[in-house]
User: Fold this.
Amino acid sequence: MRVIGRSVPRLEDEPLLKGEGRFIDDIRLPGMLEAAFVRSPHAHAAIRGIDKTAALALPGVHAVYSRADLMPHLATEFMAVGLPSASYKQDLNRPALAGDEAVHVGQALAIVVADDRYIAEDAAALVEVDYEPLAAASDCRAALSAGAPTAHRKSPHNLLAEFDMAYGGVDAAFARAAHVFRESLWQHRGGGHSIECRGAVAMHDAPQDKLTLWSSTQMPHAAQRLLCDMLGRDENQVRVITPDVGGGFGPKLVFYPEDVVTALAAILVGRPVKWIEDRLEHFVATTQERDQYWDVEVAVDRDARLLGIRGTMVHDHGAYTARGVNLPYNSAENAPLGYELPAYRMNVKVALTNKVPVTPVRGAGHPQGVFVMERLLDRVAHELKLDRAEVRRRNLVPGEKMPYKTKLKARGGLTIELDSGDFPKCQHEALGLAGWNDFPPRKSAAEREGRHIGIGLANFVKGTGRGPFESVTVRIGPSGKVHVYSGAAAMGQSTKTMLAQVVAEQLGADLGNITVTAGDTGVISMGLGGSNSRQTVMAGASAHAAASKVRDKALKVASHTLEVSHGDLEIEGREIRVKGSDVKLDLGRAARSVAGTAGYSLPAGMAPGLEATEHVVIDAMAYTNGTAVAEVEVDVETGAVRIAKLVLVHDCGRILHPVIVEGQLMGGIAHGIGNALYEWMRYDENAQPITSTLADYLLVTAPAMPPVELGHQESPTPLNALGVKGVGECGVVPIAAAVCSAIEDALSPYNVRITRTPITPADIVELIQNGS
Amino acid sequence: MSASRAISVTVNGARREAEVPVRLTLADFLRHRLELTGTHVGCEHGVCGACTVLVDGRSVRSCLMLAVQANGREITTVEALAPAGGGLHPLQQAFRDHHGLQCGFCTPGVLMTLVEFLSLNESPSEAQVREAISGNLCRCTGYQGIVDAALDAAKRLRA
Assistant:
């Protein structure tokens, strides 16, 4: 391996460091206008009328469009983005703009197009909307109770979907269990909060009827399809391009009302239109994860071996289906993953509320599943007076059972098989790095000084590399440059560097000779984009296959030209060389020799061009695993938690770029600490958001990060040729569970149970007061 | 509401005259009037730090300052860091060497914060670096790469 496995310099860095990145708000087109949206201030309201007169009279305003103005130009007003599931009770795709009813604060009612954003916002404030406020569904549990206000006037109830995830004889397991323990858990995760908010720039070439939308999306091809569906255009008329994206973290994977409305506004006003989301809009109009309430029981035998888990979970879905029921599905699926659990039944109810829709944020429901299982295992250890790590060791899927067929089904119906890894070994290494066995005496010593320190752990397993495929074209041009095109979407995780590495490994190992274009529907026909820790796995597999084909072809061309056997050739830098000699052919000449000359035959037996497109199909997911150990100190007077140290040992298969992998993990860990201690998107009882600035909604800052020690195990997956598993989301998954385990341990003298995230200082003080 | 004023500012060493609305933020002036789009806007309420620039050598959130307030002052943005002849500023190079950036959106603000900080503290401790960038939010890196880069840059700048 010449390039793979090495921490090569990133392709992305230099322009970004010099302020030469090109993010969505950096795009400026001739004649471009700017847009702002009129948004509902009510969580639930009937809309009796919209008066645009005053707004249109403002100098500099070009247009104000409400639903009524757009409908004649829309083939459908609904964004049919839901993932299929048999569990839906109601079909609630989002409309482009609200019509006679607004169902969450921030829902867009109209777009204002003006000379600049300042004027557009002035005018948006002048649009007079006649609202009749309606009762709102705020708490997702209350929303499911009889007589609760419905989130939509036309809905019979707030149950959006319901499903059971179940296998084995769970009630029989509970009947014969030596011990049964019950927990009620509340888990909250907030927004994605990429530092760059969303944005869209649309340009319509009227004579050709071609629309280009630049969007800060994680899924350009899905956005293209939805634009075509909604605007009644074909693929050849709509191009979606992602410029540099300033972080994704999940919410940018769905298609938004603002995308299609900005595009249509550009068509209607006949000039390019830009809309850039501000942070307040990000809080109220960008999808979030939010609340899950779990009531769960665990059954164990007298040796603390798992017999069964059963329970119910209520999931806050928000007001529309912007993606699917994948998030609660992931949570329910993830809870037992990684442990040998004979029987399981989780009833999941997905509740509509008058809040912005819920879709995945980095981790996508998996941290919640892990939290449930790890909290239950801590409870078992506590009750049976066993070491928490020992309880896990007895129940983890042992390494020698890999690959391990579980009894769970992925959302597409495939039985989940854990492909590789050694979970107990991973836990063992993490405990060693964290000094787990030496901790009790340290804790006792601290207690004698009046300090409360604690240690906690959590294991996780997460499916990565969601299929079925990603597209990659590799082409050597007449210039000798190697060009890579992919349906993958870069949003900060070094996707371009990754693709260049994989291709360079086959084609000369010179990263400077490779260009990568990702996130442009104009250069490749299909793509699934960035989500689910999938790009290195899926796009990486296709890049490897395509580059290998191109390599083979290039060597054939050289073999013919240089009259040497294929096996005597190697690609080094920008040349194909005869091993151990000066005879060589540069890549550009090789490309030209099969580029064709009018009237002349190609070299014998050669097909035209030095290029290949691959869509390697892999349905099964590659399972990354890891163990986190957190050490904390809790101030019992103030409830403040200081994380003293965090260890994460993980296994993402073969590591392509060690530094990038560590960077991904560190970012995930920071996000997980935020979920454990800080991030809380709060609403009042009327579903009014009350944390809508970054001063109220807390993101982790540099001083809040503890020292982190990472450990790497590499169990290559057999599922793809590179042996890689995903890593992008993995850092976040076990952190809240490990931190809460540690806080509970620190507070052991007070006998408290941590059953929620985030856990705030006020909660801790209250727990201590109630516990002791 | 659209009253405007003439301003004269020095940006990255060049004198710029402009007639600007009184409510135009410095960030929007730099980005959209002068097309210096390296300065980014992340929250527009002074928390995230992505828009940090130097005004008369001191770090300032350009989303919280009006363009008219910059009249007669000297502004430095991320575009001025790298030497004109090519290559990178030692701080930029350290970011590159320590994976101090991922998506790169917060990076210009972090760099400008650290340029000021390292000019005031040549040999900072890790804790001091963390405190210095506590007003710059980064969602990608977990800050470790940034901190490592800043400490290394301090060393390079001392050499």
